[in-house]
Specification:
With about 350 residues, the protein is an alpha/beta fold. It is about 35% helix and about 20% strand. The chain has ten helices and 14 strands. The strands form three sheets. A ten-stranded mixed beta sheet has the order 3-4-5-6-9-10-11-12-13-14, covered by helices on one side. Strands 1-2 form a two-stranded parallel ribbon. Strands 7-8 form a two-stranded antiparallel ribbon. α1 packs across α2 and α4 crosses α5. The longest helix is centred in the middle third of the chain and has 15 residues. The site of S-adenosyl-L-homocysteine has 17 residues, from β10 and β12.
Length: about 350
């Protein structure tokens, strides 16, 4: 039996046609799932009994298990147990412009970035589409309000689970699905070049963020093993094609790690590297974790770095910090059982 939240509208249309029903039923069903939020086929009062019976034999409504919720002023962190016992986390953040959720896309992560807690557990498996959809539905149910923004920046490398992540986007963006505007959806990748190119043809106006974190290959090689496969130049070349096709501004994430990538010369080099690209640089003060030796750059260092970029007329912000009190900040989420 397949989980009902696994299906895009197109999948459901095919399904209804296959059981000799009209395909508009797909949108009707979506409206029950995502607008009215019913969790039983019996409640879908405009469906025939025969269709309901068929749906019941083909699909389940199984939810994820919420094992733990930690609540802070502006942040909630949710620990979910999946049906095979795997664990992932999601983070809800309250902003002045709405609420956003940071969704996990894999159990563990194979990219092995040296600074990241999530990557300390090798990938166990990709998340299914419904496991990403349910992170949103179940958090919305908990807070009794709708989430306005989605960032795919939790545990995992979204482009290493490309098909499921893009289908997830199709569902949450659909007008009768969660109806989250494409400009309110952001995917963050460590820089998987073939997938950046594929994403250039993905017909949804979602935002792309790239975890650059270094102004040259020497530093990036040291902190991100993926850089051995795809060099900075390969990433930038792919992004130029992406930009040509989509005309969408690219975000570069740059975590600031003390003594590793935060010198003045690194800022100058970064400006030189990104010159001429329509992009914006998001400086992220490194979140320290118990298991990794890296330290956060000093505040005055971060400000100086910011100033240099600003003076070079590039768009740059320093990311506001969320959730470090409850280890819910970037790079602090994990799937490792013994430490949760
Ligand atoms: N795998 C994807 C998305 C998840 S990570 C990616 O790497 O882009 C989300 C962001 O948090 C990435 O930019 C990542 O590099 C960053 N990050 C990882 N560990 C961090 C830490 N300890 N402090 C701050 N940011 C971190
Ligand atoms: Fe994976 Fe992203 Fe963490 Fe790197 S930073 S290990 S790609 S989750």
């Amino acid at each position: 039996m397949e989980n009902i939240y696994n299906l895009t509208v197109e999948d459901l249309e095919k399904y209804f046609l296959s059981i000799d029903e009209k395909k508009f039923k797909a949108v009707q069903l979506y409206s029950w799932l995502y607008e009215k939020r019913v969790t039983s086929f019996d409640d879908m009062t405009d469906m025939k009994k025969t269709v309901i019976d068929r749906l019941k034999t083909d699909f389940s409504f199984d939810e994820l298990k919420i094992v733990k919720v930690e609540r802070d002023v502006e942040v909630n962190k949710y620990l979910f147990e999946l049906c095979d016992g795997s664990l992932v986390e999601s983070v809800l953040m309250r902003h002045d412009y709405g609420t956003s959720i940071c969704v996990s896309s894999q159990v563990g992560c194979n990219m092995g970035c040296k600074f990241c807690e999530s990557g300390r557990l090798k990938k166990v498996r990709d998340l299914k589409v419904y496991e990403m959809v349910l992170q949103i539905l179940q958090v919305e149910k908990d807070i009794k309000e709708r989430i306005s923004h989605v960032v795919i920046m939790g545990i995992g490398e979204p482009f290493d689970n490309y098909l499921n992540v893009t289908n997830f986007i199709r569902i949450i963006n659909h007008a009768k699905g969660l109806a989250i505007g494409s400009r309110h959806i952001t995917v963050s990748t460590s820089g998987i070049v073939p997938k950046i190119l594929e994403f250039a043809d993905f017909p949804y106006q979602v935002n792309l963020a790239v975890s650059l974190h270094a102004p040259n290959d020497k530093i990036r090689d040291e902190i991100m093993p993926i850089n051995k496969a795809y060099k900075i130049k390969d990433i930038l070349d792919a992004l130029k094609i992406y930009y040509k096709k989509t005309n969408r501004r690219i975000t570069f994430e740059y975590i600031m790690i003390d003594g590793v990538n935060d010198k003045d010369e690194n800022a100058y080099e970064l400006c030189e590297l990104l010159k001429g690209l329509n992009c914006y640089i998001n400086l992220i003060p490194y979140n320290e974790t118990n298991n990794i030796q890296y330290k956060r750059s000093k505040n005055d260092r971060i400000l100086k770095f910011y100033d240099i970029i600003k003076k070079n007329n590039m768009s740059v912000t320093i990311r506001r910090e969320f959730g470090s009190n409850i280890s819910a900040a970037c790079g602090q989420l994990r799937s490792k059982k013994e430490e949760l």
